[in-house]
Amino acid sequence: QVQLVESGGGLVQPGGSLRLSCAASGIIFNIYAMGWYRQGPGKQRELVAAFTSGGSTNYADSVKGRFTISRGNAKNTVYLQMNSLKPEDTAVYYCNAHYGYDFWGQGTQVTVSS
Q1: Are the C-beta atoms of residues 21 and 79 closer than 8 Å to each other?
Q2: End-to-end CA distance of the chain
Q3: Three-class DSSP category at 25
Q4: What angle do CA 39, 40, 45 make, to 5 degrees?
Q5: How confident is the model at residue 75 (pLDDT cuts 50, 70, 90)?
Q6: Scanning 9, 34, 70, 76, which has its CA 20 to 30 A from the CA of 98?
Q7: How far out from the chain centre does Cα 5 lie?
Q8: Beta pairing partners, 12
Q9: Residue 101 and residue 92: Cα distance in Å, rounded?
């Protein structure tokens, strides 16, 4: 049974930074592809950043150069460092784990507003 718990969301001003965390349990962490998705108001869910099971990374064009995905030392946690935040980044951010099936956290709200 896989459980994913996101944290770190909140309200931030444009140009500010946040770091999201995803704690995974019930899995052998490294066999899953891990990533972050988001769904903004009136928009479809989209990939933000991800590690594949092969260790490569993938970023949405809209966040390249601003966001960085990384793993914790214990490798059961995935982070999303978000810098130079824009109002367009406002969304619910979801942690995802994929190993044949997709598993999702409950999401954490990120609001970028002055």
Answers
A1: yes
A2: 40
A3: strand
A4: 25
A5: low
A6: 9
A7: 11
A8: 112
A9: 21
pLDDT in tens, 24-70: 988 777 778 899 999 999 999 999 999 976 778 999 999 999 999 99
- How far, in Å, CA of 75 to CA of 60, rounded? 23
Backbone torsions φ then ψ of 30, nearest 5 degrees: -75, -10
- DSSP letter, residue 27: S
d(CA 114, CA 107): 23
Share of the chain above pLDDT 90, in %: 76
Position 4 scores a pLDDT of 94
Written as six digits, the tokens of 57 are 């990374």
CA distance 44 to 46: 6
Cβ(22)–Cβ(106) below 8 Å: no
Residue 67 one-letter amino acid: F
Q: How far is CA 67 from CA 62, 83, 100, 101, 103, in A?
A: 9, 6, 26, 26, 22
User: Given the structure tokens 């935040």, which residue do they identify?
Assistant: 85
